[in-house]
Amino acid sequence: MGLSVKLLKKVKGFTLDVEWEIGNEVAVLFGSSGAGKSMTLQLVAGLMEPDAGFIHSNGNTFFDKSSGINISPQRRSLGYVFQDRILFPHMTVRENIAYGLKGGSRKERDARVSDMIRQFRLDGLESMPPSEISGGQKQRVALARALIERPRALLLDEPFTALDSSLRFEMRKLLQEVRNEFDIPVVLVTHDFEDAYLLGNHILIYIDGRVQQAGERDDIFKRPRSKRVAQILGLKNIFRAKPIKRDEYLHRFILEVDGLHFSMSADSRRGLVEVGMEVDLYVRPDEIMIIREGKPVKESLRHNIFAGEIVDIIDRSNYRLVYFETLNGKILFEISIPNYAFRNLDLSTGKMVRIALREESLWVMV
Question: Nearest 5°: phi and psi at 2?
């Protein structure tokens, strides 16, 4: 089960031109507003018609311009949850959910709606209008309505935008439960880093109507293809660097950033990086280690050790962001440290420490 699309659509100075394929997984369309993510969902759902291309799902063709095929939205069997949920204000919770159900006897429909109410934990709210339930409950109603016909895929357009942090956590958990229960592909549109990272198996980076990079979550976040992709992802620790030496025996590059030298494994970038060229160096915040005094330093860390000062610490609930500035070069690093590790480090603003980077933690974008 999966979804395969090739879409071209031109509207008012903007061109969407994308091609991608996903399996039975959660795929995230990630990017800033206006990149074409929501337009993609509307084209897939049949709410807009592409100028060219095709849309296939599990052996079914929903759209093919060259063959003249354009199946109506009602016959595509796709669940769709809009950004603002769009529940009917004059209908009760039960009636809103039942609206998505087609066919069957009255008894069968009532039983199916009751099952969805139970499954989405909406018991006791059946007779209430949308205006009398919470934002999280509205989201559950919208999901129940979209899934009651057991569609081939679920399309979600910024579903958590209007929710506070506690409700976002609840909805992320619910979406994971939905995936386990319904076992269908989910396409999630978001520009929220945490939603993308926590929910996505497959990430597609949208920039100006194009897919600039696509792949598995860890590959995207750890190995961005370009500085622009890294910036869209909100990644920190990106520095302009110059490879000044290549050590063939140890398979590593030496890169210079404002007078500081970094050692990086050459294997992953072989054939792309050459001595003397300018590149963008990315250092992952969660793989920067603060060296504890008196503790031996592993051999794998000894090529990238820098001394400096803690200039700021920000509490992010379950982890801390520590900002470290090197003594030489005045390079500012953002370091992400889980709370359990932070408690053992005795860090404070103004403290002088040393940091260490594994060569594999460095990534060069050409």
Answer: -170, -170
Exposed, middle or buried: residue 299 (CB in 10 Å: 0-12, 13-18, 19+)?
exposed
- The first and second tokens of residue 267, run together, are 């294997």
Residue with tokens 């009651």: 148
CA separation for the pair 104, 102 (Å, rounded): 7
Report the distance separating Cα 203 and Cα 211, nearest Å: 10
Task: Report, as an integer, the average pLDDT of 68-78.
Answer: 94
Beta-carbon contacts of 12 under 8 Å, excluding residues fewer than 6 positions away, are none
Q: What type of residue sits at position 2?
A: G
Which three-class secondary structure state does DSSP give residue 37?
helix
What is the tens place of the pLDDT at every residue in 131-157?
Answer: 999 888 988 999 999 999 999 999 999
Cα–Cα nearest to 193, from 180, 203, 185: 203
Q: Helix, strand, coil % (nearest 5) of the chain?
A: 30, 35, 35
